[in-house]
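Q: Please design a sequence for this.
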């Protein structure tokens, strides 16, 4: 048996391969945002919300920056209820767990 062989580690997120695949697009997008200086709710946010609404068939899409905000806003009377969906990014930051209400 190969008990002494160590398996190759699997990265939690393979950022290097993502950078190779998406790096130019990311750099261009960052340069565009730096050019117009609308860092919050700029045209890219509106374009994302529109694209997500078209893709999902939803009447409304509201982009929130992180899953904590998705959970908090969804549970704080923002009109999210039965039949609605709250989509959250897979990873936005490392934080201690906070229970939902």
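A: Design:
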């Amino acid at each position: 048996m190969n008990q002494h062989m160590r398996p190759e580690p699997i990265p939690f997120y393979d950022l290097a391969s993502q950078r190779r695949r998406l790096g130019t697009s990311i750099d261009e997008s960052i340069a565009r945002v730096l050019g117009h200086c609308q860092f919050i709710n700029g045209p890219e946010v509106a374009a994302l919300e529109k694209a997500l609404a078209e893709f999902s068939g939803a009447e409304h899409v509201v982009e929130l920056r992180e899953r904590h905000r998705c959970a908090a806003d969804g549970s704080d009377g923002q009109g999210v209820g039965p039949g609605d969906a709250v989509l959250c990014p897979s990873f936005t930051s490392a934080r201690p767990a906070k229970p939902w209400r």
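Q: Thanks. Anything notable?
A: DSSP finds three helices and no strands in the chain. The mean pLDDT is 78.
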